Amino acid sequence: MKKSLIGIIIVLFVGGFASGGLYYYSEKQIQEIGMPLIIEKSERVMPEKVIQEEKSTSPQIIISSDVLEQGDTLLIQIKTQSPFDEIEGNLGGLIKINFFKLDEDWMGILGISVKQKPGRYNLAIDFPDGEIFKKDLDIVERKFPVEEFLVSEELKKEGYTQSKIAEELIEKEKPILDKVFKIFTPEVYFDKPFIYPLKEIEVTGEFGNIRKEGEIAIQHLGVDLKAEVGTPVYAINDGVVLFSQETKMYGNTLIIDHGFGIFSFYSHLNELKFSTGEKVKQGDIIGLSGKTGYSIAPHLHFSIKINGSSVDPLRFIETTEKEMIE
Fold first, then answer.
1. CATH classification of 38-140 is 2.60.40.1930, yes or no?
2. What's the pLDDT tens digit per position in 120-143?
3. CB within 8 A of 149, min separation 6: which ones?
4. Does domain 3-29+144-323 have CATH number 3.10.20.310?
């Protein structure tokens, strides 16, 4: 294995060992807060007299939270009577927010990376008529526990070691997945909140936990959900399958593109029910859970990726359930 894999920070996404969805991390970069609902009128950058005259027609901005942890999801809804063709936004002047039309309203969904530097960021939303909405948001550290990087005796007999797992992920599987997640579909396939991938949700591997063995540290960027072999796994929303195949580490894996840079990832499946290119509807059985790939016990590894950022998938679903107006 290359020496460069040891003792440096190497970025990986999704998938998993018994707790897939990985980042290689330094021990120093190891890290919880609520999500109040904020409803505000946009603030116009124009004379006070104009603000007063047009206040009744100003867009209504609904923000899921003004305090976010690393790995959280920011959901913004805009209710307006104006027939805009597009709306632009950014966080901190650097992180672009893609807004899309959902029924009569506009919506933007932004993933806060687990590596996002904590601090205060200015949210800016620009409207075609020159109106600008601004709001300061706080991003805070999230504490991620450090655990032992386990490899079962059964897996050891199959040739799995921590170093070999790292090498396989970085050199072979990460490049394949990166090509999928770089795809941006300018179409939104969903029109309703997201649902859970299993009927019963019991977490066996938390999002963000760091598994460490010597100088190798792996951060789990998804959740492991208890699921015996053969348990139905459901599509969390409408979309198109962009990846449906077996890999050595992730086992039988399926990735759904939900549009506008939002992807859901399901791995260690015993059976795949859809092929690449097929459309899925929310609630479709896309596979059966299993123990394929690098997996210590049967379970479902479940991840969410939003425009390049891995987010806590259960918090993502909770946010859409609470904040999306159907």
1. yes
2. 999 999 999 889 999 999 999 999
3. 162, 211, 212, 213, 216, 217, 218
4. no
